[in-house]
């Protein structure tokens, strides 16, 4: 889940905050996983950013498959979060830790029998340090308890580098680096997921 990058950014933002306030120690929190939602969403379609959020409108769609990349996966909870149009997860600029700090732009849906999910949101910006390409995080929970993290990057992002291309072991619709199709005022990104062999 790209924890090392998030962790570095957390340390940086915490250190800056500590410098400004003098009493907040620059303690790096261990990267946390979000918990699955208490109430399972009843629909495959949801929002990450509210409709008034500044930024280019983006619709993310895809299908969730079982490990064979062929069988559609129903009842999978798909949670997604990303930065805002300024590259921040929160107004206070901290990284999310899901203990007391949730990302501001987040959403959860649940796949139906056709395995589909859809999020309406805005296109995120890279972190302000420009040390990482713009991206969208996903956490998926299968009905059997399996959990995994995934990520989407955007083709053409000048910040894409060897680590993202190395990370991108899958191809076509499963690739973590996806083309954005512009459709009027809307941008569209399609990304499919398949169940990983191990939780990660
Ligand atoms: Fe991130």
Mean pLDDT, to the nearest integer, reads: 86
Q: What is the share of helical residues? A: 10-25%
The 3D shape can be described as globular
- Ligand identities: fe (ii) ion
Q: What is the name of the CATH superfamily?
A: Aromatic compound dioxygenase
Structural class by sheet pairing and helices: alpha/beta
CATH architecture: Sandwich
Query: Which regions have little confidence, pLDDT < 50, spanning 5+ residues?
Result: 1-30
CATH topology: Protocatechuate 3,4-Dioxygenase, subunit A
Report the end-to-end length measured between terminal Cα atoms.
7 Å
**Per DSSP, what share of the residues sits in E-state strands of 2 or more residues?**
25-35%
Q: What string gives the helices and strands in order?
A: HEEEEEEEHEEEE
The CATH class is Mainly Beta
Offer a few descriptive terms:
29% strand; binds fe (ii) ion; six-stranded mixed sheet; 200 residues; disordered N terminus; five-stranded mixed sheet
Question: What report would you give on this structure?
Answer:
This protein is α/β, with parallel strands linked by helices. The chain has a single domain, classed as Protocatechuate 3,4-Dioxygenase, subunit A (Sandwich). Helix content is 12%, strand content 29%. Strand 6 and strand 7 (147-154) form a beta hairpin. The termini are close together. Fe (ii) ion binds next to strand 6. Residues 2, 6, 135, 137 line the site of fe (ii) ion (FE2).
């Amino acid at each position: 889940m790209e924890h090392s990058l998030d962790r570095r950014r957390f340390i940086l933002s915490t250190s800056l905050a500590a410098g400004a306030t003098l009493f907040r120690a620059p303690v790096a929190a261990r990267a946390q996983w979000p918990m699955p939602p208490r109430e399972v969403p009843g629909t495959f379609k949801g929002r990450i950013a509210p409709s008034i959020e500044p930024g280019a409108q983006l619709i993310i769609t895809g299908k969730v498959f079982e490990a064979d990349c062929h069988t559609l996966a129903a009842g999978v909870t798909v949670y997604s979060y990303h930065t805002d149009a300024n590259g921040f997860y929160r107004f206070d600029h901290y990284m999310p830790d899901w203990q007391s700090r949730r990302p501001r732009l987040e959403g959860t849906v649940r796949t139906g029998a056709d395995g589909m999910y859809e999020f309406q949101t805005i296109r995120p910006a890279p972190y302000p340090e420009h040390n990482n390409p713009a991206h969208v995080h996903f956490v998926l929970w299968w009905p059997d308890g399996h959990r995994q993290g995934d990520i989407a990057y955007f083709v053409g992002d000048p910040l894409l580098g060897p680590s993202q291309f190395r990370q991108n072991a899958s191809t076509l619709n499963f690739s973590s680096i996806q083309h954005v199709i512009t459709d009027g005022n809307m941008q569209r990104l399609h990304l499919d997921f398949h169940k990983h062999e191990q939780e990660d």
